[in-house]
Amino acid sequence: MTDFTTPNGAQPPAQRALHEIATGGDNAAALSTLAASDILLPVPAPPEEPAGDGAEQETISLPVFEQEDGTKLVPVFTSEVRLAHALPNARGYRILPLAALSSGWPSDDLTLAIDAGSPDTLTIKGEGVRALAGLSG
Questions:
Q1: Mind telling me which InterPro entries this protein's record contains (predicted)?
Q2: So what's the pLDDT on residue 55?
Q3: What is the pTM of this model?
Q4: Which of 57, 70, 101, 112 is most buried (most C-beta within 10 Å)?
Q5: Is the dihedral of CA 48, 89, 21, 109 positive or negative?
Q6: Which fold has domain 13-44+61-135?
């Protein structure tokens, strides 16, 4: 299992951005960095076979976890290490740009949880998730 790392072994930009937000740093710059970063989206189930109608359309199934208070979270991660720590039984993941995920965010009822279980966890509600798409540059 690997963690995303930079060539000099430093913490990846997405994780630095999360830490910056968690510690009260420059949120605007950190959110822009985060929005432009690739994330790992856990795969909730094996991919289904295409419908076979000739239309090729890629859809992404979101893993949704409902909390005791009714909040519905979609977890994403900045590294395999953080994903494995939070979801040790995850079957796999897809790598995609956070901005691509946020531009198609389906509902204000869903909350995005970035690096759940880490000290720098960031949760963003629906409208804020869609706003990330515009920050990616």
A1: SseB_N
A2: 46
A3: 0.82
A4: 112
A5: positive
A6: Trna Endonuclease; Chain: A, domain 1 (3.40.1350)
Profile the chain (137 residues) by mean pLDDT over runs of 10 residues: 51 88 84 92 66 55 92 95 92 92 93 94 92 81
* Ranges of each domain in the chain: 13-44+61-135
Return phi, psi of residue 74, to 5°.
Answer: -115, 110
* Residue keyed to tokens 């994330």: 39
| Alpha carbons 120 and 21: distance in angstroms, whole number | 8
- pLDDT for position 23: 87
C-alpha to C-alpha distance for 117 and 114, rounded to whole angstroms: 9
At 80 the pLDDT is 92
